[in-house]
Amino acid sequence: MAFAREGRRWQRALPLSRFPRIALEALGSEGELEVSVTGWVDREGHSFLGLEVVGELTVGCQRCMEPMVWSFHVDNRLMLVPEGRPFPEDELDDDRYDAIEVSARLDLAELAEEEVLLAMPISPRHESCEVPSESDGASRASPFAGLAKLRGSDGQV
Fold this sequence. Notes:
Layout: H1 2-5, E1 9-15, H2 20-25, E2 32-41, E3 47-60, E4 67-82, E5 98-102, H3 108-119, H4 145-151
Parallel strand pairs: 4-5
Antiparallel strand pairs: 1-2, 2-3, 3-4
């Protein structure tokens, strides 16, 4: 909270290896994330953080199963709510920020990691790619092909 009250700014280029939960989702730990955090207090006395994270992760395409690069730019505003205090009621109606509960000490790199994980696509896919085929080029018969034979030509079982 003092970070926001004092209007501090924290900016770092952090290696991907610094983020263990992102490492579980990524296909490598090469590269780095550019993290920038700015604190401020609004007119009503609410403490805020502006969090910006920019980077690229290599993830697996869920369609073709090949590696792909996911470029991202997370830019979030977070209202800081002291631990044990209720969240402001208007927080749910205001899309300009999200409220988060914070204790006396907040790990900014861990917060950046959390926001990147929330922004990650559930099922990353290339814009256009093919479903993997059999390695010998032969196509596999559908597991339902046998059922079609049982139905007969008139469609009746």
